[in-house]
Amino acid sequence: MVGAGNRGHHAYGPYALEHPDRIRFVAVAEPHDERRRRFAAAHQIPPERQFVGWEEMLDRGRLAQVLFNCTQDTMHVASTVPALELGYRVMLEKPMADTLQGCIAIARAARRTGAVVEVGHVLRYTDFYTSVHRIVCSGALGQVVNAWQAENVSYWHMAHSFVRGNWRRGVPMILAKCCHDLDLLQWNLGPSLRISSHGSLVHFRPQRAPEGATLRCTDGCPAEPECPYSAPRRYLTDYTGWPVNVISEEMSLDARRMALERGPYGRCVFRCDNDVVDHQVVTMDLASGGAAVLVMHGHSHREERTLRYDGTRATLRGRFFKEGQSEIEVHDHVTNRVSRLEPRAGHDAHGGGDTGLMDALVRSVRAPEASMQNSVMEALESHLMSFAAEEARLTGATVELEPYRQMVVEDGA
């Protein structure tokens, strides 16, 4: 495990504890002392296999079959490429990298070394999206002429991750949050020819701050009691799961209060250094002849993804909840019947996707013929779409995707 933070410790680590007969973590690299000790203690990793940095770990050669790379996005290229050269199979947390050239470098390294890279597109492994894919591939919808997907990010998730948190600036929101959604679109409907996009940062700006708003929610802000983004209301309750467990290593009320007074998560959402959009629309011309639209925004009352695929024989409508019951409806144009499915809801942070990915990873390591659902080149496609969408948003132009794909094979790579 390289990077024993939220995803490493809380998403992938528990699977090994629940299934010690399938997978075991034997080394950890993590610069944060408490996180490193916590992960090592949970997985009984000896001191000689505990490393402050990934460089020190890789200097020891290959210590296992698989390396989980859960470092920050900016560190993915530097830590993944040498791991592939050592012969590691890498489970790489999404997005692949924070730059277009970084994503391409990882794909080229995988191709050059022959090593396997699995990108953490965990939604492919949920019962909901597996069901959608099966229905589309069955031909029940006919040719999909119009597709619409929405990533409805809740107002509190937007504030936590993309205004106050680690993904507030630098990396395009459409990459950091929606490479999942673009991956699902190309998985279900095939490649896109061209992309256009519009979006901006509307709400989380200094000029939108309430009168008298202080720099922190804990500074006696007069607007805090009625503010939807009140940090004390979000983080100082009896609940200590995600995202509360991100703000402090210790979960006592006093520790969390101190974290709000000193750390990033107590800042006024209108006075942060964020620059990513809070809404964006991406329009795609599909190679199959249809069109697709992805809507992303950070002002939803709850976390949910919604979709509608209109085909020549039927319409599919769906709502995916990370927690609670998801639903799929197929409206048949011939019979006018409505078929309804209620996909199983998993118990992890991605509605069963984290567990599903781990199950598939274990199977593919034990039996290479049982390959993962997407190759690194297929995973790269959604990242190319993300960067093309950001170019389109910034320039107002319609962007062709083929030149992006050609970058991957330049210089004979």
Compact summary:
With 413 residues, the protein is of the alpha/beta class. It has 14 helices and 14 strands.
Strand content: 15-25%
- Give the domain tally: 3
Category by helix and strand content: alpha/beta
Strand adjacency order, main sheet: 13-12-11-10-6-9-8-7-14
Write the layout of secondary structure elements.
Elements: H1 6-18, E1 28-29, H2 33-43, E2 50-51, H3 54-58, E3 66-69, H4 76-85, E4 89-92, H5 100-113, E5 117-119, H6 127-138, E6 144-154, H7 155-163, H8 173-176, H9 179-189, E7 192-200, H10 231-235, H11 253-262, E8 279-286, E9 291-300, E10 304-311, E11 314-320, E12 327-332, E13 338-341, H12 353-366, H13 376-395, E14 399-400, H14 402-409
Parallel strand pairs: 1-2, 3-4, 4-5, 6-9
Antiparallel strand pairs: 6-10, 7-8, 7-14, 8-9, 10-11, 11-12, 12-13
Helix pairs in contact: 1-2, 4-5, 5-13, 6-9, 9-13
Describe this structure in words.
This protein is an alpha/beta fold and 413 residues long. It folds into three domains: 114 residues, Rossmann fold (3-Layer(aba) Sandwich), CATH 3.40.50.720; 203 residues, Dihydrodipicolinate Reductase, domain 2 (2-Layer Sandwich); 61 residues, no CATH class. Helices cover 35% and strands 19% of the residues. The longest helix is centred in the last third of the chain and has 20 residues. The model has no long low-confidence stretch (mean pLDDT 94).
